[in-house]
Amino acid sequence: MATTKWTIDPTHSEIGFKVKHMMFTNVSGKFGTYDATITTENDNFENATIEFSADIDSIDTNNTDRDNHLKSGDFFDADNYPKLTFKASTFTKNGNDYELTGDLKLRDITKSVKFPVEFSGLLTDPWGNTKVGLNIEGKINRKDWGLNWNSALETGGVLVGEEVKLNIDLQFVKL
């Protein structure tokens, strides 16, 4: 069976996240530099091979001091671990959409994660390129990957929430 390769379209993709700050508001951020590929059997996405990586130095929360803190040893330790990576173990159809399971590696820790995926189906853009869109929303606990830094608040609670909400919009183009 023939395989089909898909590559990410970075101008139409976003790797976003949100974390609670001071227990009541969200800080949003994104990664600006990343790469992803999908390999499918023909145009069938079930059991696709999916690989993703993001450069930690490209983290952007709209605040340089906070970004530098996130890159430091308190969080991602970008000097020693310059990339986060994800490699799918399964991509299975669930109704009209999919469920994605795989290994997420942050710092030197790899953990299995599972996320629902909204699947757009195959579309052709005005220039004749075949594209597919995936929207992934999910949650992880940053402490599962050793991102433990925090600061207690005088009023109780902590400065940075443990739960990280992911909102990832990916558009791929068929090669």
UniProtKB/TrEMBL annotation:
Pfam families membership: YceI
InterPro entries the UniProt entry points to: Lipid/polyisoprenoid-bd_YceI, TTHA0802/YceI-like_sf
Segments forming domain Lipid/polyisoprenoid-binding YceI-like: 5-173
Database matches in SUPFAM superfamilies: YceI-like
Domain of life from the UniProt record: Bacteria
Protein's UniProt name: Polyisoprenoid-binding protein
Natural source organism: Flavobacterium cellulosilyticum
